[in-house]
Write a structure and sequence with these properties.
translation initiation factor activity; 21 helices; alpha/beta; Translation initiation factor eIF2B subunit epsilon; initiation factor; cytoplasm; 7-stranded mixed sheet; NTP_transferase_dom
Amino acid sequence: MGVKKGTTRVSEDTVEELARVPLQAILLADSFAQKFRPITLERPKVLLPLANIPMIDYTLAWLESAGVEEVFVFCCAHSGQVIDYLTNSKWFNQPNFSIKTIESHNSVSAGDALRLIYEQHVIHGDFVLISGDTLSNMSLTHVLEEHKERRKKDSNAVMTMVIRKSKPSPLTRQSRLGTDELFMAIDPDTKQLLYYEDKADHLKGTISLDKMLLADKSSVSVHNDKQDCYIDICSPEVLSLFTDNFDYQHLRRHFVKGLLVDDIMGYKIFTHEIYSSYAARIDNFRSYDTISKDIIQRWTYPFVPDVQFTGNSTTKLERLGMYRASGIIQSSSAQIGPFTVIGNGTTIGDNTRISNSVVGDGCKIGSNVSVEGSYIWHNVTIEDGCTLRHAIVCDGVIIKSGAVLEPGAVVSFKVRIGQQFVVPSYSKVSLLQQPTKQDSDEELEYADDSSGIVEFPSINSTSAKLTSDSSEAQLLAISEVGAGGVGYLWSVGEGDFEDELRQSVAPIPADKLAEIIQAANDEMEMSAQDGNTLPPSGELQPDSNSFNSEDNIEDRDDSIFFEKEVEATFLRAVHEDVKEDHVILEVNSLRLSYNKTSVDCAGALFYSMMKLAIETPHSSTSELFENATSVIGTWKRVLKSYLPSIDEEIEVILKFEEMCLESAREFSSLFAKVLHHLYDVEILQEEAILNWAAEKEGADEPDKVFLKQSEIFIKWLNEASEEED
């Protein structure tokens, strides 16, 4: 689709004038709400809790910290709730930070929203375009400077997109956020975006690029390892372009692609890649889970639960990534595991175990309850003997005794789950009946179709009706969730089950992973036979049919995320007595998801084991050594499963060496002793240790500190080896 010629251009003098206006932002509050059904039929997505804090608070806090002075919040679905929340929040009373709401009940796309904002003439210069489900801690200084400098040289440079590196899984072809593999072509010299395809999964590893892309370019970098952060720096022309082109609805699929293929007006989009900063958008339940973990593990700092960026926070950070608010009543026999958030005023009964989860304010959790990898929002009641695995439970839900929520279950507001009832995997339960017609998110990018299109009764009115004068027959009529339960069990469409697996808070099941692996192997064989394989991201030179690797250095961010996930899995296994086979299965799932090798798994597991040893109370180096030998003895089999060759064993030594120098210096005096123990318990072979020592011989003196510490042991190994020969 082309750009109409009537679009207004901005002169260079006007550009200089615009540079002096306060920095503004447009925040779209209704992005992809349908992927969060049935929850978003009753509450706007931006008000859903993320580590017990509404999503929109993270976005606004970042905008304020980044120097934005005026934010226009566009809301459509449940606009009254958004406006009420903002009006009563701290955001309406901030100096030098103004928030104004724009309400519409007829807009069903980003295009509609931006056209309406253009008509109101409120944007006076370059602005930040963002959705209310985006988190970041990046500085805007550099990207704004880049954008303004480009504008001075080329008035056609109308947008700068923020991106960051993120490797998709080679098996599922999706990112860690549960989004489709994204293909981009970028001019490596100017950073101009030349190609964008976010719906390429059907292409089976091949993309087609127009040869004209190389007509005036020395080279083009083609990537499938970039994440679109959905943070855009826009010039005022962007709004007028939407107004002049009514077929622009979707921001990426229509607007971005429309500008990329237009050869008449010559408008350009550029990219700005961030490296050490964080930026991500909550597109689906999997990204909700991933970003929640990133918050808990403090990748989003300073926007974390224990920092008062939204007001008076009573949450405190404790060891092993546990966050606890005030007023918690917890039984002495209850166990709270690592990477867990517990909200204000929550009570936890006897022998209950909670790990890797978020529990909201005012919840009542009974005895002998097991909660793992789940998100329990506010004022939820969970009776005795319940089990929740990788589930989402909304405000006001009551789960009767003995009930089970299987992985991927979503229980919407004020539902009652009956005694002993098992909510099947990937099921959704709501007080509202499942709509018979479901519009696609391609049509409704920034609004749920409950706004201005279909009216649904409110949960409050439905709940009141059920709990007041309803007859037993009426209650039973909607008791699809067991005895004493109230709610409708939504069915998963025949063609939707694959998306539920890919976009759920639950890990992809082992049997499904096996199917994916087999399908990937079959596809690779077919591609090899046909000669169609997609090379890794790299530069395409003119008159070249192949790609050269642009960078063979493993992405540090992905490696750190992987190690954090392995550590969380390991700590959960320690605190919950998870069987070794299950731990191996979970680590294998992470290995596939992050495209890692056995070497990576071995290093991450050993790091987690040694970190546990050092965090276990001790008063001397001898006690620390005892901690280490105890952990190694307990988890030896799990570690050994990732040591199929000498290379992996050497990685364990290198990882331990790195820890002794950096994160766990307390082990430095014990290096040789632990190395000897790893040999004694047959984790490390003689060949691995001697190869490591041989490699170290040629190193600089400062790098030989642990080799020298191990001289006696190495000498003994060499002598033993010579005697055998």
